[in-house]
Amino acid sequence: DFFMKPEMKNHFELASWFHAPGPRAAIKAGTGTITFVPNMLHRAASDRIHARKPDFFFGTCTPPDKHGFVSLSLGITYEKDILEASKTVVLEVNPRLPRTLGDTQLHVSQVDYFVHHDMAVPELPAPQPNQTDMTIGACIAELVEDGSTIQLGIGGIPNAAALALRDKKDLGVHTEMFVDSMMELYEMGVITNKAKALKKGKFVTTFAMGSRKLYDWLDDNVAVEFQRGRWVNDPAVVSQNSKMVSINTCLMVDLTGQVASESIGSVQYSGTGGQSDTAQGAVAGLDGKGKSIIACYATAKNGSVSTIVPTLPEGSAVTLHRSFVDHVVTEHGIARLRGKTVKERVKELISIANPAFREQLLAEAKRLNYL
Fold first, then answer.
1. Which of 60, 179, 203, 339 is least surrounded, with the fewest CB atoms within 10 Å of its CB?
2. What is the DSSP string of 30-46?
């Protein structure tokens, strides 16, 4: 928030990897100088370093242990790569951060300056799923077999999917984002990680956000292994998981399967994140049993517009190319697109659109010579 204050506008330019609510609000209000860095999560650090080597790295860490190692705690998506490429490293030591394990450890000799600050760790409350979320979550659960390895994020739909997975057995986790629902499914015995082909018995993640309970649970927890985003989200690594299921959400899908998850027309709304990485890795699963699931509400703006559209709006960023799209889920069902023709895709996608828009979509499909 500091960089988005009006008085900072002429002093800092924030290069954002992912537009969260803060940057979106600042852009709308014109109170910050913010630009976007197009990226895929597994290449975000290397591509940025390629474009511009950083001078300073500012981050947070736990107090050092008796051997002089701090933990970078809740995130090494690209933090450690950027840190190692920086000329000067400054870390804020916060005793309230959990000491996570994996590649999060860093010796004090690698740090130029420490600043001590005892403060509450920001929490991210889990949104409560509504009835539409629950319907979509149930459809997602239909596609998840016992023994699957899952990637799941946060939000109404992902939380509903987690609730719908409670009857599954021996699930595993390989995900960029670790959230409360994963801890809860583990405590219920749904997630065991014992059927995984890669890092058997371990959660694999690159960052975590959630409740204080989650942070306390992650502290010194050998069941959870944090690794860099360039490894966790590398599609070639993701593909090594058994029955890998990538579960993500989007803003809209066109009738050929092009997925827009990060912009509304030319207006950047969020970012690619790990969606492209995990979706590609899942459908390329080495065991031939991987699945990618893209979920969204069938309508937006209180039901006035369809999210299944003839073509994406001008300027839209295509987050997931249609060649990599597998399953699309709305509250009206599941569209299975992998390997299908444009004609077949159109019929599948119209079948999961809101009924009020199906005739219009059919007419547009004919006009576009899709049918």
1. 339
2. T-S-EEE----GGGHHH
